[in-house]
Amino acid sequence: MPSSPPPSSAVLATTSATPISDDSSLTYRPSRPPSLNYSLAPRRRKFAIASFLILIFIEAGVIPLIVFYAIRWGAHLNNTKNLAIITSIVGTYSSYKLARRSWYLFISDHGHQRRPLGASRFGPDAFTIQIGLAMTGFFVPLVIGSSVNPASVHTVSMSLSCFMIAFCVPLLITSVWPHKLKMPFRVSSMPPWTGLPPAMYTLVEDIVAVDGGGCVEFRQAWRIRYEHSAIMRRIIRITSFYWGASGCICAAAFIAIAWTTPEDIGYGIGWGLPWLWAFTSLAFTVRWVKKELKREQEEWNTVGVHELFNLHIDQTLDEKAVAREVNDYNEAQDGV
After folding, report:
1. Rg (the chain; Cα; Å)
2. Is the peptide bond before 150 cis (omega within 30 degrees of 0)?
């Protein structure tokens, strides 16, 4: 798989932006799954992912735990001052990342290359909305718990668990009713009143296209792969259901434990166990997805694997041209 998408985004700046309806003309029968035109092989991408995971874990996992117990057992400050210090620290790195992402998506001169298919300049993608709701769920108990006098350790302990619930509910709902739920507004590349795929589809599309630099080429390649592969659709639905169901169940358990145990124990559970769930689930997901992708490759010509499913995504002439470039590249690769 190539390390960067071969089609050029320059076409976006040269052709008409008049919306046209999607069609199924860009179909083909390759002997292997269509390439996603994106790879994690470059060291800079692996380094970026590792750096993000480490820094976000330090910000919302290590620092809240170390600072809380150090001040509580070392400096012997009361809970109000202790939690006020923690609240002032948490959110700095994540806020920077969200601001940087918004710059890429809305303000940058090359933002049109990263936006969802058919979206306007200031139309947010699904990940922006989903992470915004999750961050609200995170900061509400954090701010309320640290603002009351005396501060409520139990309330602050709910912060990560509330984040999990707000982030995982869309994953769960859309996986239980895939392509059944419809929204009156655009959800990433999905037009209004179009059946929504499991939310993992839009998460992968938005994160790779915007944060990973895959741009519109990846959005098109991702759409083509999803539409043509029954196994890929199964992967997306199962991962959406797993993360959604396990996240909601574990978060509810963490909240219940945090409120029924002493403050010291409840705080450690509330800020520690969510990370254990996240990293364990991530390791399980990576291993299982690799296994399924190998099976997709081996069984591609089996009946029921290469099976077309139309997402009904409206595209501009610009995006249609990029889709043809991606399609031509896949056919060329299939002939190698």
Report:
1. 22
2. yes
